[in-house]
Amino acid sequence: MINSNMARFGMNIYPHIGKNINIIDVHKYREQGREDELYNKYLKDTDINPILEEMLSEITENESDKKCRTIVYSLSYFIRLVGLDPVVEAIESLSKKGDINKSVNFLHITKGMHGTTVENTLKQVCDTVIELQVEERSFNVQRTIFIRKLYGSIAPDNFLPFYIGKEGIKLDTIKRIL
Question: Who contacts 18 (Cβ-Cβ below 8 Å, separation ≥6)?
Answer without folding.
Answer: none
